[in-house]
Every structure is written in structure tokens, then in C-alpha cells.
Amino acid sequence: MIRGAYIYSDKHYDYTMKICGLYILERLLYTLHKTGIQHIVLHLDSDEKAFFNKTIVPYITKKGIIVEEWPNNKKPEEGSMVIPSNVFIQPHYFDNFKKYFKESKKIYEPLLQEDQFLINSINDVKKAESLIVKYIIENTGGYIAKNINKRISIPISLQLAKTRIHPNILTVINMLVGIVSAFFITQATYWNMVIGGLLFQLASIFDGVDGEVAKFTFTVSKIGGWLDTIGDNGTLLLFLIAVSWLYFKNTSIGVACLVVSLCFMGLFWFIGMMVWYLRKYSESGSLVAYDKEFLQKLPREDIFVKFALSMKYITKKEFFALFFFCFSFTGKIFLLIPIITFVVCAGACVLTIINIKYLKAVNTIR
User: Fold this and answer.
1) Could you tell me if 243 and 318 lie in one domain?
2) Among residues 67, 194, 258, 304, which one has the fewest Cβ atoms lying within 10 Å of its Cβ?
3) Are 6 and 82 in contact, with CB atoms under 8 Å apart?
4) Do residues 70 and 160 both lie within one domain?
5) Are residues 147 and 266 in the same domain?
6) pTM to 2 decimal places
7) Which residues contact 67 (CB under 8 A, 6 or more apart)?
8) How many domains does one find in the chain?
9) How far, in Å, CA of 112 to CA of 323, rounded?
């Protein structure tokens, strides 16, 4: 609907102020680009123009954003947006366009209101950051993630975003925490198992950091999604291997071989069902997309769909990481293996039935 965006200097403000690690004008450019606006024209005063060319251009160039200079006396094209350079806008505002933008003579302008305003002071920056954080928390599924994990991870993510660290580096670091967790589990003493469970829970909390930094700095990518998926499941796999090793030490070989084999076959089949969907039908690399893009669209009266939706929360990392940590205090963490085996095998069977019944129909409609 929007043909382009014309950005102008409203009045002098502190150009060095940052929102979640990004300069105000830089963030505005990323927001417009994310919403699909490719034609962006700038008409800045001399000071802001100098700051833009020296400081912001190197960053936006890396992300493939190209801007033009607004020629003197040229009017914006019909169907374009005219925006002050220091306005705070969030990408999801474009989903409710009439609420956040007004039209006059076929030119669109942002409506200044409580959650869309000009950034002129550090208090405005803090208000903008609180709105971004609020939106992330509100769109986080799961009680533990929303009310516990995010309360810890978001303050960390805000500080890391200011360093411009790439989210993929954080994903790798989190994977290393998972590896150390598995190592402590294999030591087989009581406190080593507790420490291992604690590190696994910390990995679950910090798992949100890379995604939050990516959202704060507009560096979300399919590659990052796949790396995050690999990291999550790699960490889980190492944890299960460590706990399986303890299960072998505390159970007869025959029983352990049967249960552990079923556990890993069920796990690979369970995850494989979702990964196959992502590769064939989705633009996302995150397993969350399987739920949002597929499961949520299925008829709730179907007993298998109902079972899958009811089981999905206990298969989320936020739940089972905390459960594993609490269970580690029993000193018998190896007993998790038969519990996990039942859950993943049941889940794999249900997802297989659902995929056969609905996958082709849902994606034909799409």
C-alpha cells in the first residue's frame, strides 16, 4: 500500500541517543525496511545528515538498505509516507495501519499518541524501550517463559544489544553452556547432577537472549533460526545422552538398551516431523513455526490435534528445563529417561497422524 517513505529532520535532537542499541534514525530505517518499504528518501538538516553519513550509513549498508537524498522542491509521491526522523514506530503498528497513521491528500503521516511519539529526551528513549519489551513479553507463549525467563533474559539482552554482538555468537555460547551441563551430569555425584540441572535451566533462560537481541537490533534471519534450533536440540541431545549414561549405570543392560533406544528413536522422529515441515512449507527455521503456521490452524475438535496442543507446553524447553532442574535434587535424575521416552514416543505418533491427515490440505489452502 505504501509506495515509499520520505524522512525529514523535524527539529534538532541528540542523534547519538539509542533505542535498544540502535540510533533513532537507524532503527526507523530498519523498521520501514522490515515492513516492506524499499524506496526511502531522506531530507535531513546539515548536522543530522553529517551524522547519518558518518555513523549510520556503514550499518545500514551491511543490511542492504539503500536510501536516496530528497531533491529540493520535490513533493512526495502519492501513496508515500512522510515521517520525522526521530519518531518512534514499531513494525507491528503497520498491521493496524488506520490506528497509527493518517492520510491527507494521498500522503500518509504517523499519528502521534501514547505509544507512537517523537524521541527528544532520554525519558522518551526509556519509554520506547519499555514498549518494545512489553510487546516481546506479551507475545511470548508459556507461563514460565513470560513470567520467569523473560524477566531475567531481557535486561541482559538490552545490555548486549548495545554492544552490537551478533545473536548467532550468543547462540553458540549458549550451546557451550549446554555442553558443560552435560559434562556435570556425567560426573554422577549428587551436587554435580544439581549443577548440571542448574546449567541446563540457565541455558533455557539464556536461550531467549539471542532471539531478543535479534529483535532489538533487527538481525532476525532464517540462518539464525536454524542455528537456534540446532543449538536447542543439540543441547537437549547432549543432556539426554548424559542422563542415558546414568540410566545404564543404574539399570539392567537389557532394560536400558530398550528404553534408551525407544527414547532416541522417538525424539528424532518427533523433531523430524517438525523439521520436515519447516524445510518443505515454511520460511522460518524455528520449530515454533510448526505450531504457529500449522497446528494452530487445525480443527480443535480432532482428538489428535487436541492431544498435540495439550502436550506442546510440556515439550517446550522452558518447561522441561525447569522440570529437569527440580528433578535433579532427587539425586535420581536418570529416572527421567523412561518419562521422556513415553512423552516423545506418544508425541511422535500423534504428529505423524496429524501430518498425514492435514498437512497437504492446509498447505493447499495456503
Assistant:
1) yes
2) 258
3) yes
4) no
5) yes
6) 0.81
7) 29, 40, 41, 42, 60
8) 2
9) 46
